[in-house]
Amino acid sequence: MTRFALTLEWNGLPYMGYQRQSHGPSVQQAVEDAVHSVTGETVAVHAAGRTDTGVHALAMRAHFDLSRSFDPFRMMEALNARLRIAKHSVAVIDCVEVAEDWHARFSCLGRAYEYRIICRRAPLTLEAGRAWRIARPIDHEAMHEAAQSLVGLHDFTTFRSAHCQSASPVKTLDRLNVRREGDRVIVEAAARSFLHHQVRSMVGCLALVGQGLWAVDQVAQALAAKDRSKLGLNAPPEGLYFVRAIYPGE
Question: Rounded distance, CA 4 to CA 80, Å?
């Protein structure tokens, strides 16, 4: 048995998220079908995280097992050829052979996301579906100040989807930074793991602060409420990117 670790990049617009779904296309199905087309084997491709409909990935880690050996570079090239032929907006940007006890999800020590906001009145053209356009002026420094109240160990019930399957709403948020690059406001989030919709929910409330619709301390108040009904706004999925997964020794 040979275990392959993949690094995947995708445009999330055509997909119902990473995980295979019965009611629409998924990234997992696209990759599993490509592996089957190349090798003739039916495999399960496990990823470091599950993304929502419309969410993108720059470097999602995943793995699958094959009953025989296969050159990793040839595997990457063959999978990309199959994905391209099938017109999937998914690419394998790296493929390596790993130990049989390496697991994309359970070996992962941390995950990082990036949320992209573009502040302008004109509609998006080149980046339509790849960022959240906000026409109002945004104070990114106020957003960053408010974000720091969310860093650390907290009960994130307010920022958790009602459909979240996590056993506990308590998570440790390692980093939540907000920076500006021209008309772009970028929110960077890092933690060992996240709740369903946690990043989008945090960004939505921070965006209210940035637009002057919420005071800075209202984010901390929403957190303390531990009540989903106190959430101000859930940011749309198209601005969210899975950036990286961190593993021992990396």
Answer: 15
